[in-house]
C-alpha cells in the first residue's frame, strides 16, 4: 500500500514507468471486467486504454479516501457504460447495401459475446450468462463484481457510488431473478 | 429465533455472502438443518453463484503495454506542450513590451548625448577662455547618463498605485484558471494550496455568492433527491467538466456522493462558478411503498425494486453543467 502511494506520487509527476508499474497488477482483472461488459476484445482493449489515460490525467484528483483499486474499477465502469450508451444511440447505415425495394440496410452493433468467448462456455455457464444479460445493468454489474471479481460489498458500493444497503438490495434482487430465470435449467446445476 | 421457509429463502443470497447478522445466521442455519426443501434452494443458489464465478478469464492482448505506453507518452508530450504554450502566451507579451521600452529608453539616451556634443554649452572662465561642456570634465553628460540609467531601473519597479475605496462587487475569481486542480485530503485541513484554492470544505459552510442558496446537508432528511445546477460561462465549461470528469455521467448528470459533491462545490466556488440546488422530497413516496410491502397480495419484488431505486437516487447528488 505504501509502495502504491509512492508510485502514485511519482506518476503524478509524469513518471510514465511508475504509472505502468502502478497499474500492472490490475490490468488482467480489469481487462476481463471490461470484456464482460463490452463482450469483445477490441472494444475491451480500447476501453481499458481509455480508462488508463483518464487515470493518468486525473491522478492528482485521487482523493485516497477509497482504495486505488476501487477508483480504477469506478473509472472503468463509467467508461464502459458511456461506450454502451453511445453504441445504443449509433447505428450504421450502409449506403451501398440496399434491398431490391431500394431500402437501406441498417447494421446494428452485435452485442452478443464474440465467438472465442462463446466457445469456452459450457451449458450451465451459457445459461447463467443468458440470464445475466436479462438483468438491469446495475444488478448485473453488482453481481458480476461480487461473484466473478470477488470484491466486497463495501468495494462494490464505492465503485458504483452507491450505499451498502443499495448494493445488498441489488445483489439480493439479482440472485432471486437469476434463480427464477434458471429454474427451467435446474438440472444443469448440481 | 425461528424463520419460516419464505423468510429463509429471502435471506439466502445475503447468507451465502456472510452478509447476515448473528441472529439471522443462526435462524437460517437452524431452519436449514430441518428443512430439506430450503436446503435444495440453498444448494441451487450456491451452484449458480459458483458457476458465475467460473467465467473464463483471458490474457491481455499482446502488445497492450507497448500501445499504452505510446499513448501515455503522446499525452505527456501534449500536456507539456500545452503548459509551455500557456506560459509563452502569458509571458511573451510582457517580454516584448519590456524590450520595446528598453530600446526606446536607450535610443533616447543616445540621442540626448549626441545633442549635447553637437551644441556644447559654453562659458567664459576666469582666464577669458571659453570652456564648453564637452571640453570639461564631462560631468553634465555623465549625470545625464546616470539619470537615464536610473529611469531604466525605475521601469522595473512599479510606482505605488494611488489607493482607491473598494467597490462592492460579486465575488471575483481568486486566481486565473489553475494549471492543476487541488487534491482533497478528506476535509481534515483548511490549508490553501499554491493556487489559493481551499482543499477542504466544511459541510455547513455557507456559500458566499448571494445567488447560491445555503444548503446544510447534515440536516437534510434522508429521502431527498438533490440536483445541483452548475452555471458556467463558455470559457469555464471545460474546467467544470474536468472537475467532474472522474464521476459517473448518465443522462446529462454527473452522479456524486455527498463528500464528493462538497469537494467539487469548493472547487467551483474558488473559481467563481455558481451552483444552484433543487430538492425533490421522496419521503412520502418511500413511506407509502414501505407500507404497501406487507399488504397481502402485494408484488413484493417490484416494491423492493422501487424502494431500492429511491435509495439509490437519494444516495447520490445529481450535478448538471449549464452555460450562462
Which helices and strands appear, and what pairs or packs with what?
The complex is a heterodimer of chains A (190) and B (324).
Chain A: H1 2-12, H2 16-38, H3 41-58, H4 68-89, E1 92-98, E2 104-107, H5 115-120, H6 123-133, H7 137-147, H8 153-159, H9 164-182
Antiparallel strand pairs in A: 1-2
Helix pairs in contact in A: 1-2, 2-3, 2-4, 3-4, 4-8, 6-9, 7-9, 8-9
Chain B: H1 5-16, H2 22-34, H3 36-53, H4 64-118, E1 122-124, E2 130-132, H5 139-155, E3 224-232, H6 237-244, E4 248-250, E5 253-256, H7 258-270, E6 274-281, H8 283-292, H9 300-314, E7 317-323
Helix pairs in contact in B: 1-2, 1-3, 4-5, 8-9
Describe this structure in words.
The complex is a heterodimer of chains A (190) and B (324). With 190 residues, chain A is mainly α. Helices cover 67% and strands 6% of the residues of chain A. Chain A has nine helices and two strands, in the order H-H-H-H-E-E-H-H-H-H-H. Chain A is elongated, with a radius of gyration of 20 Å. Chain A starts with a helix and ends in an 8-residue tail after the last helix. With 324 residues, chain B is α+β, with helices and mostly antiparallel strands. Chain B has nine helices and seven strands; from the N terminus they run ααααββαβαββαβααβ. Chain B has helices at residues 5-16, 22-34, 36-53, 64-118, 139-155, 237-244, 258-270, 283-292, 300-314; strands at residues 122-124, 130-132, 224-232, 248-250, 253-256, 274-281, 317-323. In chain B, a hairpin with a 2-residue loop joins strand 4 (248-250) and strand 5. The longest helix of chain B has 55 residues, at 64-118. At the A-B interface, helix 2, helix 3, helix 4, helix 6 and helix 7 of A face helix 1, helix 3, helix 4, strand 4 and helix 7 of B.
List keywords for this structure.
heterodimer, A: 190 residues, mainly alpha, two-stranded antiparallel ribbon, 9 helices, 6% strand, elongated, B: 324 residues, alpha+beta, five-stranded mixed beta sheet, two-stranded antiparallel sheet, 7 strands, 11% strand
Amino acid at each position: 500500500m505504501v509502495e502504491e502511494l509512492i508510485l502514485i506520487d511519482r506518476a503524478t509527476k509524469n513518471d510514465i514507468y511508475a504509472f505502468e508499474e502502478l497499474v500492472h497488477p490490475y490490468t488482467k482483472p480489469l481487462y476481463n471486467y471490461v470484456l464482460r461488459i463490452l463482450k469483445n476484445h477490441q472494444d475491451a482493449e480500447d476501453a481499458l486504454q481509455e480508462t488508463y489515460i483518464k487515470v493518468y490525467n486525473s491522478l492528482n484528483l485521487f482523493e485516497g479516501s477509497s482504495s486505488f483499486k476501487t477508483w480504477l474499477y469506478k473509472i472503468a465502469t463509467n467508461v464502459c457504460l458511456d461506450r454502451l450508451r453511445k453504441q445504443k444511440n449509433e447505428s450504421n447505415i450502409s449506403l451501398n447495401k440496399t434491398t431490391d425495394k431500394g431500402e437501406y440496410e441498417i447494421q446494428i452493433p452485435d452485442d452478443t459475446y464474440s465467438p472465442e468467448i462463446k466457445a469456452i462456455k459450457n451449458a450451465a455457464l451459457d445459461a447463467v450468462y443468458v440470464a445475466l444479460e436479462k438483468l438491469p445493468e446495475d444488478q448485473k454489474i453488482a453481481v458480476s463484481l461480487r461473484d466473478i471479481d470477488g470484491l466486497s460489498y463495501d468495494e462494490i458500493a464505492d465503485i458504483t457510488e452507491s450505499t451498502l444497503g443499495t448494493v445488498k438490495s441489488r445483489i439480493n434482487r439479482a440472485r432471486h431473478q437469476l434463480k427464477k430465470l434458471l429454474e427451467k435449467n435446474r438440472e444443469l446445476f448440481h | 429465533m425461528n424463520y419460516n421457509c419464505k423468510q429463509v429463502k429471502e435471506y439466502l443470497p445475503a447468507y451465502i455472502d456472510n452478509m447476515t447478522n448473528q441472529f439471522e445466521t443462526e435462524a437460517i442455519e437452524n431452519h436449514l438443518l430441518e428443512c430439506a426443501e430450503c436446503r435444495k434452494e440453498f444448494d441451487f443458489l450456491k451452484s449458480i453463484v459458483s458457476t458465475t464465478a467460473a467465467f473464463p478469464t483471458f490474457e491481455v492482448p499482446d502488445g497492450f503495454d507497448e500501445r499504452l505506453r505510446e499513448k501515455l507518452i503522446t499525452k505527456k508530450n501534449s500536456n507539456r506542450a500545452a503548459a509551455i504554450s500557456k506560459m509563452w502566451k502569458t509571458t511573451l507579451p510582457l517580454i516584448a513590451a519590456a524590450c520595446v521600452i528598453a530600446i526606446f529608453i536607450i535610443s533616447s539616451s543616445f540621442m540626448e548625448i549626441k545633442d549635447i556634443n553637437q551644441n556644447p554649452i559654453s562659458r567664459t572662465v576666469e582666464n577669458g577662455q571659453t570652456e564648453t561642456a564637452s571640453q570639461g570634465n564631462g560631468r553634465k553628460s555623465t549625470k545625464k547618463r546616470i539619470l537615464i540609467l536610473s529611469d531604466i531601473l525605475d521601469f522595473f519597479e512599479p510606482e505605488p498605485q494611488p489607493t482607491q475605496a473598494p467597490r462592492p462587487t460579486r465575488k471575483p475569481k481568486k486566481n486565473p484558471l489553475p494549471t492543476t486542480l487541488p487534491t482533497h485530503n478528506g476535509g481534515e485541513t483548511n490549508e490553501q494550496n499554491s493556487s489559493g484554492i481551499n482543499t477542504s470544505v466544511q459541510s455547513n459552510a455557507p456559500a458566499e455568492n448571494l445567488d447560491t442558496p445555503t444548503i446544510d446537508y447534515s440536516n437534510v432528511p434522508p429521502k431527498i433527491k438533490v440536483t445541483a445546477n452548475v452555471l458556467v460561462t463558455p470559457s469555464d465549461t471545460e474546467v467544470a467538466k474536468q472537475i467532474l470528469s472522474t464521476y459517473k455521467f448518465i443522462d446529462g448528470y454527473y452522479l456524486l456522493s455527498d463528500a464528493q459533491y462538497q469537494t467539487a462545490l469548493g472547487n467551483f466556488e474558488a473559481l467563481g462558478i455558481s451552483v444552484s440546488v433543487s430538492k425533490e422530497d421522496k419521503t412520502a413516496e418511500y413511506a407509502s411503498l414501505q407500507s404497501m410491502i406487507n399488504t397481502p397480495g402485494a408484488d413484493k419484488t417490484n416494491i423492493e425494486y422501487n424502494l431500492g431505486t429511491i435509495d439509490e437516487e437519494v444516495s447520490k447528488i445529481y450535478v448538471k453543467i449549464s452555460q450562462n
